[in-house]
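Final report, Chapter 2: Outcomes

The project's central promise was a pipeline that accepts a single protein chain and returns its three-dimensional structure in a standardized token representation, suitable for archiving and comparison. That pipeline is now operational. To close this chapter, we reproduce one record exactly as it appears in the project archive, with the input sequence first and the structure output second.
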Amino acid sequence: MDDWTFICRIGDIPVLGARRVRRPAGADVAVFRGADDRVFALLDRCPHKGGPLSQGIVFGEHVACPLHNWAISLVDGQARAPDVGCATRFAVRVEDGAVSLRASELAALAIGDDAALAMAHAAIAIANASA
């Protein structure tokens, strides 16, 4: 069984830009294209305050969150130091210009993350208050 779902053609993603993929449940997925035509996919939510990463600026192998300029790695979803956090990463396949994501990941990863995001924000607020 093929677990890959066709998303778009690589030319449908702007160079140094993104395309948003809606899912039946959970937050959208942002599919990014680098200057070298490498393609990456992350949950379209910054780990800091939930900003839409698909609206950020792509530079090198990072995207800058449009809300607070956090740099998020497109390779592994990790925030660049000194910031701490991680956006969920999705596997990407590009074959003959066709961009696909794993159907099983689209169906299962980061579903119901709103409660986890709220808990993370509360923990950050407590940590900042005691600093």
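Archive annotation: The mean pLDDT is 89.
This record, like all others produced under the grant, will remain available to the consortium after the project formally closes.
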